[in-house]
């Protein structure tokens, strides 16, 4: 098996086999746009970080899952934004993060309101950032109502990535999600509000696709409201040229003070979410690695370093070392080449019995490698291996790590086991005797045998070994 450790100094020609080349199902110009974007490329999220700045607090619609005291639920898990920033403060914060986080490749504006309704602040922030940080990608999240009015500026500013939250294409369903919108100086309610919002979302999507902007569609899965409907949303946005579809679970809690929270509307279970995602397969390509990050998130997806970069902690003078950022990107290209070689080894098992499946939880810090200790893992990446190959299913967040202050926490161990109870194997860089025994007793095979190896080839090898060890008709 190819190991990630010995990075060759020269590497092979990128066009022949390295990951600088686009994947087979993607045009090179599209790959050039997404290859460093951690949300638009599942592969990139192993290597690159995003940050949001909360500069746009105003919104032009009301969603039943939103309370404006909290982050925009379009793109964020509910939780108060630590700081609302002016465009100048936001730009300063971006520079400070870029100076110390070389992985930073994308700046997104995703709430706590609507980035396009609050356009002056969004634009002022982006203008200030690109002046000093030309290698950053710009990204916007919007409810879509104001989108058609801003497409020309979006294109002119090289904003290649726009997310539209589309929860319905049927206004009857929309009326259950949006009590009102504010459009052309008027407040509209009920069916009329939902119809106008729907028309504007579709128009904005069409206009962006026509101009070559990559559109991701986020849909909030609301059980009993739009769960059965989201497959129609998926098919419609595919037809219109959306690049990705991200079906994300409603987060609902009375403590958040939202209409849904206060009226008992629950969010979906992990199984219900997976069922809808699986039903959508075959249409618009699904994003499965979303972490529902905050509107002021900083860092790799799944980590939030926002508290390291609050205004009071920003240095007086900020200097970005561009050679360090460039060196990081070169290093990633080398890692990608190696990972691409490794993926070539991931072949479907020719003798796999139909239906034989291996579900694997992986502890990783990034780089596509099994490199995290079990006790330090903040999340697991879940993969499924079958006769067709190895597929990424999604990330599961660990609320409290097993190892805290050097000691193992019994109560968190049982929660972690419950989190991955459907997995056959757990792969990590290191695991102690006690958690190992408890995982084994729960029917999950823990292993650190593949420590510091690439994820997918390790799972493929494990699957092949299991297939060889088990009689075909077992
Ligand atoms: Fe931010 Fe959204 Fe841009 Fe990413 S997040 S504006 S596309 S840079 Fe990403 Fe976060 Fe999921 Fe959003 S993981 S919530 S999809
Ligand atoms: Fe809240 Fe975002 Fe909906 Fe506006 S678009 S109401 S900020 S969730």
In short:
It comes from Rhodoblastus acidophilus (Rhodopseudomonas acidophila). This protein is α/β, with parallel strands linked by helices. It has helices at residues 28-34, 87-100, 119-132, 151-156, 171-174, 190-210, 230-239, 259-262, 270-280, 322-344, 410-419, 433-441, 455-469; strands at residues 49-52, 61-62, 104-109, 137-142, 161-165, 180-183, 186-189, 214-221, 244-249, 298-300, 358-362, 379-386, 389-397, 403-404, 407-408, 425-427, 445-447.
Q: Can you walk me through this structure?
A:
The protein is of the alpha/beta class and 474 residues long. It folds into two domains: 28-313, TIM Barrel (Alpha-Beta Barrel), CATH 3.20.20.70; 350-400 and 410-469, Dinitrogenase iron-molybdenum cofactor biosynthesis domain (Nucleotidyltransferase, domain 5). It contains 13 helices and 17 strands. The chain has helices at 28-34, 87-100, 119-132, 151-156, 171-174, 190-210, 230-239, 259-262, 270-280, 322-344, 410-419, 433-441, 455-469; strands at residues 49-52, 61-62, 104-109, 137-142, 161-165, 180-183, 186-189, 214-221, 244-249, 298-300, 358-362, 379-386, 389-397, 403-404, 407-408, 425-427, 445-447. It has a seven-stranded mixed β-sheet. The chain has a five-stranded mixed β-sheet with strand order 13-12-11-16-17. A three-stranded antiparallel β-sheet has the order 2-6-7. Helix 12 (433-441) links the parallel strand 16 (425-427) and strand 17 (445-447). Helix 2 (87-100) packs parallel to helix 3. The chain is globular, with a radius of gyration of 22 Å. The relative contact order is 0.12. FE(8)-S(7) cluster binds at residues 39, 50, 52, 75, 106, 108, 110, 139, 141, 161, 163, 216, 246, 290-293, 301. Residues 59, 61-63, 66, 68, 72-74, 111, 113-114, 143 line the site of iron/sulfur cluster (SF4).
């Amino acid at each position: 098996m190819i190991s990630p450790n010995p990075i060759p100094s020269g590497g092979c020609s990128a066009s022949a086999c390295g990951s600088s080349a686009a994947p087979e199902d993607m045009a090179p110009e599209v790959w050039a746009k997404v290859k460093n974007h951690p949300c638009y490329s599942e592969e990139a999220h192993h290597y690159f970080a995003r940050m949001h700045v909360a500069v746009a607090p105003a919104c032009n619609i009301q969603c039943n899952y939103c309370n404006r005291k909290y982050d925009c639920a379009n793109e964020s898990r509910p939780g108060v934004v630590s700081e609302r920033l002016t465009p100048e403060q936001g730009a300063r914060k971006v520079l400070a993060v870029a100076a110390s986080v070389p992985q930073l490749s994308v700046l997104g504006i995703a709430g706590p309101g609507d980035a396009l309704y609050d356009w002056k602040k969004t634009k002022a922030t982006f203008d200030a950032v690109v002046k000093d940080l030309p290698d950053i990608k710009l990204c916007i999240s919007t409810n879509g109502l104001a989108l058609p009015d801003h497409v020309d500026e979006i294109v002119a500013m090289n904003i290649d990535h726009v997310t539209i939250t589309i929860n319905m294409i049927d206004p009857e369903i929309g009326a259950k999600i949006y009590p009102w919108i504010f459009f052309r100086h008027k407040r509209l309610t009920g069916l009329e509000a939902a119809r106008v919002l729907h028309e504007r979302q579709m128009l904005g999507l069409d206009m962006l696709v026509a101009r070559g902007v990559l559109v991701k569609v986020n849909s909030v899965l609301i059980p009993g409201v739009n769960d059965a409907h989201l497959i129609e949303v998926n098919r419609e946005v595919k037809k219109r040229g959306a690049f990705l579809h991200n079906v994300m679970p409603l987060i609902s809690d009375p403590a958040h003070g939202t209409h849904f929270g206060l009226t008992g509307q629950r969010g979906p279970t992990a199984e219900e979410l997976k069922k809808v995602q699986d039903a959508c397969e075959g249409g618009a390509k699904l994003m499965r690695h979303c972490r529902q990050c905050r509107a002021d998130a900083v860092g790799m997806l799944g980590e939030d370093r926002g508290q390291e970069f609050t205004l009071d902690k920003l240095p007086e003078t900020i200097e970005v070392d561009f050679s360090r950022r460039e060196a990081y990107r070169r290093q990633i290209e080398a890692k990608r080449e190696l990972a691409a070689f490794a993926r070539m080894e991931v072949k479907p098992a020719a003798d796999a019995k139909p239906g034989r499946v291996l579900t694997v939880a992986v502890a990783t810090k990034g780089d596509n490698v099994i490199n995290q200790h079990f006790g330090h893992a903040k999340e697991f990446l879940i993969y499924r291996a079958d006769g067709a190959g190895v597929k990424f299913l999604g990330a599961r967040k660990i609320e409290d790590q097993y190892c805290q202050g050097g000691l193992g926490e019994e109560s968190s161990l049982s929660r972690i086991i419950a989190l991955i109870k459907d997995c056959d194997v757990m792969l990590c860089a290191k695991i102690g005797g006690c958690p190992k025994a408890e995982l084994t007793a729960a029917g999950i095979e823990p292993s650190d045998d593949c420590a510091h190896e690439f994820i997918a080839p390790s799972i493929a090898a494990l699957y092949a070994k299991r297939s060889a060890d088990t009689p075909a008709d077992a």
